[in-house]
UniProtKB/TrEMBL annotation:
Gene3D superfamilies: 3.40.50.1970, Dehydroquinate synthase-like - alpha domain
Keywords: Oxidoreductase
Domain of life according to the entry: Bacteria
Pfam families xref list: ADH_Fe_C (PF25137), Fe-ADH (PF00465)
UniProt cross-references to PANTHER family, sorted A to Z: ALCOHOL DEHYDROGENASE YQHD (PTHR43633:SF1)
Protein name per UniProt: Iron-containing alcohol dehydrogenase
Lineage, opening ranks: Bacteria, Thermotogati, Thermotogota, Thermotogae, Petrotogales
Species whose genome carries this gene: Geotoga petraea
GO function term, MF aspect, one: butanol dehydrogenase (NAD+) activity
Amino acid sequence: MRNFTFQNATKVEFGKESYKKLPEQLKKDGIDKILMVYGRSSIKKIGLYDTLIESLNAAGIKVNEISGVQPNPRLSLVKEGLKKFKETKSQAILAVGGGSVIDTSKAISAGYYYDGDIWDLFAKKAPVKEGLPIYTILTLSATGSEMNGNAVITNEEAQQKWDISSKALYPVVTYISPELQYSLPKSQTINGAVDAISHVMEFYFDTTPRTEIQDALAEGIIKTVIKATETLIEDPEDYQCRAALAWGATLALNGLLATGKQGGDWSSHMIEHALSAVTDVAHGKGLAIVFPAFLEFSKDKIMDKLDRFAEKIFGIDTGSKGYDSDLAIKALKDWYKKIGQPVKLKEIGLEEEKIEVIADNAAQIAPFGQIQDMDKKKILEVLKIAYK
Ligand code: NZQ
Ligand code: ZN
């Protein structure tokens, strides 16, 4: 285990109807004018929008809005949101939704304190120095964005899906009320679970030796998320499973699992972001395809960990490391298939020629990865495994 500093600035209010504490919190923080950011229709369908507007107005808090955030959130809407924030002289942002809504809010927040083009921050031409106060009401557990400083945005003109990460972007308070997720379509619950498991795996397969406590936590989260997801496919209103999945997804990417490691690998994520930039596939579906292919590609470098993964997650222990590693990758893919995820690029209708385009796209930010330096040639090899 390496030395580390761990600090997470976000206060989490977890539980049934915890979001009802929001008006009181805003009053306490001296905020009486907010910009509410949300997606398309889900928060209206579940009645959350009306409840919030009513309670915020009753508390004397003026609500300005920007809506229409879509999955793989677009830079153009970030720019509109920033304009709105400035015009309305709002004091803080309220993000109500999943990762795309929260990431859009963080990008607005970072952009507010930067005079140039916001995309400079994503292109790493300038650092994120400051952020606005962000409050989030989470309606989809997946990304961990509710308790971290990351945002991933798609520049639709340049076909680039890039990220920013800064301490300045941690939400001030996040409300996680698992019952708000009863309305999720099955596929969104599943995409979320795959994303959460993938975040855990990015840290788990980091090759830093002797990280027993982090690895045990990781295994516990993966097993619990698998179990909760299987129940939720049958019964979307099982509160305890919603709660387990929600907290598991938050813990997967709130910094806890990064402690003592070298930051995690993140190659699968970088390749998946390129895949989403080119095809607009949902992040959780892209990961179900890319991650097993990446494990296959990296097998010889992470065999001890894969062998442990086989036993701890899937109860596989034949005594042969190489064989168990193969079985672990197969078991992961089989579980993805069982819950209805694609595991091959073909299944999302990708033509083989497009692989080169995706590799070029990902290579714009190469080299990346902790396990090995991923360059275009290696990215292409992963994508070829993912295609076959
Ligand atoms: O637009 P609405 O109508 O709100 O519908 C949304 C959207 O279509 C729907 N939804 C959300 N809550 C719902 C609901 N439908 C019914 N009931 C509810 N309670 O779900 C759809 C998907 O939402 P989205 O926010 O896109 O999903 P997710 O939370 O999975 O976010 C994915 C985005 O986050 C990025 C991904 O790349 C992707 O762009 N990531 C962000 C990270 C971060 N900030 O730390 C890390 C991740 O690795 C990831 O890259
Ligand atoms: Zn992810």
